[in-house]
Amino acid sequence: MGEPRSRRGRATDDGDEWNARPPLRNGSLACNGASFRGRAYSMTYKPITTLEIEKYGCIKKAKFELTPIHALIGPNDSGKSTTLRALRTVAQFAAGNFGHEPNIRPEPFDPMLDNVPNSNRLKIGYADGLGYGIGSKNDHHDVHETIFEGSAEVATGVSSRGWNLNGIVFGGASVQGREDLATRLKDRITTATLVRFDPDCLRTAGQLIPESKGIRFADERGTGLASVFDAIINRDAEAFALIQSNVRSLFPSIVKLGLININNSQKAMAITLTDGSRIGATAMSEGLLYYLGFAALRYLVDSKLFLVEEPENGLHPARIAEVMATLREISKTSQVIIATHSPLVVNELEGDEVTVVTREVEKGTQATLLKNVPHYEDSRKVYENGELWLSYADGKLEQPLLTGRPRE
Predict the structure, then answer these.
(1) CB 53, CB 86: distance < 8 Å
(2) How far apart are the first and last CA of the chain?
C-alpha cells in the first residue's frame, strides 16, 4: 500500500512532542458580549484518545477511539452529531460550568441532559490512562464527577455538583481520592469549540472585540467572522498576511482581503479583485467565506478541541483538500474532530483517523475504525479511504463496508 497523500506532519496520540500554540493575547473569553463560561489558561496539548457515551441523545452505549484529527462518517441519523455534542458537554463540565436557571436556556449551550429519561455517563480518556467522566441521574440538575486511571475509578467528587458550579478539576468541589490526578487533568482539559458554519452568519457584520477579550466567534455558525479578522489584524499582522497570501493563491481573482467599517463599532468582510473592484461580504462566495472561517480557527483563544460539522459544505473539491490541510496543521496543537458525509474529506485521512458510525434499533450505535473493516489492507491497494467508503457504503447500516460483502 502506498503512502497516503494526507500524511502531513501527523501529531502523536499522546501529544507530548507538540507545544501549545502561544495565544495572541491574554484575556477572558467572550461570547455575545457575555462572560464565557470557560477557563483561560495555558496547557500542554494532549489529545483525547477515547470517548465513552452511555444514554446520551440517540446513543445507547458506544466507545470511540480518537486521534489528533479524526472524522466520523456513516449514514444520516447514526449519531455523529450527537457524538460531537457529547464530547462538547463533558469537556465543558470538566473545564468550566453552565449558566443554568429554570425556564432559561443553559449557557454557553444546552448540554442535552434534560432529554435523558435515565442515568447517563460521558467519559473522556487520554493515552496515559488518565480520564474524566460525568454521570447524571433522573433529576438532571446535578452531575457526579469521576477521575479514572485506566478503567478504575480513583477519585470522585465528595458530592454531586450543580451545572453552574466548578467541579473537581478546577476547584469548587472537594475530591475524595487522588487529588494529584485532578492537578494532572488541569494541564490538559479544555473547553470545546463547535463549528457548523453558515454563510449568512459568516457574512454578518460584527462588533469590535475589545483588546482585553479573547478572539472567538459569537456562535457556532460563524457569526463575527469580521470581528475575528479585525482582531487578528490588530494582534498578529503576520498571521493575517499569511491568510491573505493563501487566499490569493487559492482564489486567483482576489488581490486583497480586508474589512469595511459599517459604523463606529461594527465591521464586515470585504475583498478587492484583480480588476480593482471591491466586493462586500454580502456578495462574497460561500466557498471563500467557509475557507476564511476555517483559516481563522487556529487563532481563536484557548480552546484546544475543535468539533467541526461538515467542513466540505460550499467548497469546490480542490478547496476541500486545502481546508483539510489547514485542519491537519491545527491538529498539531489542537484536537480536531469532524462529522462528515464527504469521501473527499476522508481521502485526506488515514484508516485509524476515521470511524464509521452506524445505529440499529436493537444494538444501538456502533463505532468501527475504518482500518478495522474486513479486507481493509487489500482494499487500500486499490482505493483511497474516501473512495473505499463510497464504493461499499449503502447509506443505511454500511453493511457492505463493515462485513466485506458486495453491495446489492
Answers:
(1) yes
(2) 27
Domain boundary among 271, 301, 331: 301
Same domain, 240 and 369: no
Do the domain assignments include residue 20? no
Q: Determine the length of the chain.
A: 408
**Residue bearing cell 460563524:** 222
pTM over 0.85: yes
What value does the CA radius of gyration of the chain take, rounded to a whole number of Å?
21
Whether residue 173 sits in one domain with residue 210: no
pLDDT digits (tens, 9 = 90+) for 378-391: 999 999 999 999 99
Q: Residue 114 half-sphere exposure, CB side, CA atoms within 13 Å?
A: 12
The answer to whether the Cα torsion of 70, 36, 38, 11 is positive or negative is positive
Residue 216's alpha-carbon distances to 194, 198, 256, 299, in angstroms, are 11, 16, 23, 8
Confidence of residue 114 (pLDDT cuts 50, 70, 90): low
Contact present, 361 and 333 (Cβ < 8 Å)? no
Side-chain half-sphere of 26: how many Cα atoms within 13 Å?
2
**Whether 111 and 177 share a structural domain:** yes
d(CA 89, CA 253): 42
To the nearest 10 degrees (0 to 180), the angle between helices 225-235 and 237-250 is 120
CA dihedral (38, 43, 11, 299) in degrees, to 10, reads 60
Nearest C-alpha neighbor of 370 from the set 349, 352, 346:
352
Q: CA 191 to CA 178: how far, in whole Å?
A: 23
Residue 324 located in a structural domain: no
Give the domain extent around 174.
30-191+342-403
Grid cell 485506566 in the structure block, residue:
150
